[in-house]
Write a structure and sequence with these properties.
heterodimer; A: alpha/beta; four-stranded antiparallel sheet; B: mainly alpha; four-stranded mixed sheet; 16 helices; 4 strands; 5% strand
Chain lengths: 258, 396
């Protein structure tokens, strides 16, 4: 499970960044005191418009960024104090992440298995299972740079799952993918849920959220606007569909529009 | 884990054509190629110059013995053709227009002066930019001078030895090894440093800025491997690439000597082979290792901070000059390793290598040089670590 309490993240700005943002402030607050929980066997959606702080939040959860304030518990491990231990439980998949183009899927997945201290035997067993599941045998020894987008996405899934993480973080995983490739990701999320893993994912596609999610957190300008189950979200829904409801919540809460 | 990262990065690096070119192909081939081109060009120029028939303008109003002897100079000293001129003005004009290459003016009273056993002032006109032509004229006239001297000694019944009070014999007490070390020894560390730097550059940019640009760093940082281990694994590949580039360059030099036969003198050749002993190579690497780590340590923070390959390259490339200039100190014969130069980074390694080649190494100076470079290497590693630890630098 993931427990996030009073989490904040600010970034200091250099002279060039201040100029680009047109501000005189020395720091920008990307995430402002947010709290939520993601439970095992449930899929939690983290939604928000561009620049809301979703990626920063997910990067803090995956321990890439250190929070400025607050706490994160990953399966009861303090991810701020002990990030290395927390990482053993986390699988992280982003739509924008690249792969080592000069390696083959086999080499890349074994490499990540070793980085997660998975034994050689287990790496081979898990690779076989994942290759069967994702139909990857034909291209396992081809250079990744020569693979199609769909094939690359399958390699990314394998890389994320090779250490059998209990917590899986997806940052806009289907962004820019065609429907067939995106379906692989959606199936992966379903599988993770069925296996009792804790899943959190961010997306702009409300159809995916509607299809997959059990819980929902909406953030805007670094603050939580909504945090409840999908059931509760649907029950309080005022707009005709989920997308319109999401827009309504974000607009209603915008200080300048309030 | 450091080794796991190292192995993967090495495999990745060796599959990058650009890096392999800079690390293996260019360092191995550059010296043999330059030397073979230089040798073939220089040989063909020498051959052409030796075979060239030099046109010599001759201003002389009488057909005296000097004119006759000039015509008798053997072709072994270079082929020639004499063209008579009536005055020196026309002679100079002809040299300027390259219709002749040299002009010789013989005074009208040359024959009388010869008979009176007095010196004849011969003027040689030449174009200073037409290299070798003055030497040709000099060779012809010196040949006549020697013959005439012998004739005069004979006519005057003088024993030549009696008018030669001094005969100089020079004996060089420096060994060939020392000569090579002190005079040409700067060349080897210069090449090592230049190629070591080049060898580090592309892997440093590719393994740090490249990871950012390709968005692969994010997934690497979510693994439970401490960042310093990732840094060390990557840094190991950068350092190894620098050392490999330097090694392949050394191999190229060795191939040039062995295959292209660039060193003709057997004594010098033996001295070079003696220098390139296993003990020398081990010592050379011991000196170079901290230097290459230092190179990696200054490149990595730049590569970590840069947002694109182009940006990193535009900052690191000019650094090459800063490294190469002190490395050139080795070319100046007067500068030696002492308590002051041992403290100057890069310069100390170049001079220590020179002394090592010459076999005149003072161990306390080597220890100072080594200590300075190790200190700098450690500082550079710590600096790299700080930059790599900073999440703002690593994630774009």
């Amino acid at each position: 499970m993931i427990q996030v309490s009073n989490l904040s993240k600010s970034f200091s700005l250099n002279r060039q960044q201040k100029k680009e943002l047109g501000t005189t402030q020395n720091a920008v607050l990307a995430v402002d005191n947010i709290s939520f929980e993601c439970m095992p066997g449930r899929v939690h959606a983290l939604l928000g418009p561009n620049g809301a702080g979703k990626t920063t939040t997910l990067r803090m959860l995956s321990t890439i960024f250190k929070p400025s304030k607050g706490s994160i518990l990953i399966n009861n491990i303090d991810a701020v104090a002990n990030p290395q231990e927390a990482r053993r439980h986390i699988g992280f998949l982003t739509g924008s992440a690249g792969l080592y183009a000069r390696l083959t899927p086999n080499e890349l997945i074994s490499y990540f298995g070793e980085l997660y201290s998975v034994s050689k035997n287990d790496i081979e067993l898990r690779k076989k299972r994942l290759y069967d599941l994702l139909d990857m045998h034909d291209f396992q020894n081809k250079r990744i740079g020569k693979l199609s987008t769909g094939m690359k996405q399958k390699v990314s899934i394998c890389r994320t799952m090779i250490h059998d993480p209990q917590v899986v973080i997806f940052d806009e995983p289907t962004s820019g993918l065609d429907v067939i490739t995106a379906e692989n990701i959606i199936q992966l999320i379903r599988d993770c849920k069925n296996q009792g893993k804790t899943v959190i994912f961010s997306s702009h596609i409300m159809g995916e959220v509607d299809l997959l999610c059990d819980d929902i957190t909406i953030i805007h300008k670094g603050k939580v606007l909504y945090n409840d189950t999908m059931e509760a979200f649907r029950a309080q829904q005022q707009a005709p569909n989920l997308t319109a409801e999401f827009i309504r919540i974000v607009h209603d809460q915008k200080p300048e529009l309030a | 884990m450091i080794f796991t990262v190292f192995k993967k990065e090495l495999r990745d690096t060796l599959r990058d054509r650009r890096t392999v070119m800079m690390m293996i192909v260019i360092p191995t081939l550059v010296f043999p190629l330059i030397m073979s081109v230089f040798m073939s060009v220089s040989e063909s120029f020498q051959k052409a110059a030796a075979e060239k028939k030099v046109k010599i303008g001759l201003v002389s109003n009488q057909a005296g013995s000097l004119e006759a002897d000039l015509l008798k100079v053997p072709d072994a000293l270079g082929k020639k053709e004499f063209i008579p001129f009536t005055d020196t003005l026309a002679l100079v004009k002809a040299i300027r227009s390259d219709s002749i290459q040299v002009g010789i003016y013989i005074p009208n009273n040359a024959e009388q002066l010869k008979k009176a056993m007095k010196p004849i002032a011969v003027t040689v006109f030449h174009d200073g930019t037409d290299l070798g032509m003055k030497d040709r004229a000099d060779a012809y006239l010196s040949y006549i001078q020697e013959n005439w001297k012998k004739q005069r000694y004979s006519e005057l019944k003088i024993d030549e030895a009696k008018v030669t009070p001094l005969v100089m014999n020079y004996s060089n007490v420096a060994s060939s090894k020392e000569m090579i070390g002190k005079l040409a020894g700067g060349f080897l560390p210069y090449l090592f440093i230049a190629f070591g730097f080049m060898g580090c550059m592309f892997p440093a940019i590719d393994l740090f800025t490249g990871e950012k640009e390709r968005s692969t760093i994010e997934t690497l940082l979510t693994t439970p491997v401490p960042r310093w281990k990732i840094l060390f694994g990557k840094m190991g590949v950068v350092v190894l690439s620098g050392l490999l580039a330097a090694t392949f360059n050394l191999l190229g030099i060795y191939l040039s000597i062995e295959v292209l036969d660039i060193v003709k003198d057997p004594i010098v050749l033996q001295a070079i082979k003696d220098i390139l002993s296993p003990a020398f190579i081990v010592m050379l690497y011991a000196l170079l290792c901290p230097l290459i780590i230092f190179f990696a340590g200054i490149m990595i923070p730049i590569a970590v901070r840069a947002k694109s390959f182009k940006e990193a390259q535009s900052i690191i490339s000019p650094l090459n000059l800063l490294i190469i200039l002190p490395a050139m100190v080795g070319f100046f014969p007067g500068i030696e390793l002492n308590e002051v130069t041992a403290l100057i980074p890069v310069v100390n390694i170049v001079l220590a290598t020179k002394e090592l080649i010459a076999g005149t190494l003072e161990w306390h100076l080597v220890a100072i040089s080594f200590g300075v470079m190790v200190l700098l290497a450690v500082t550079a590693i710590l600096f790299s670590y700080r930059k790599f630890e900073n999440e703002n630098n690593v994630i774009s």
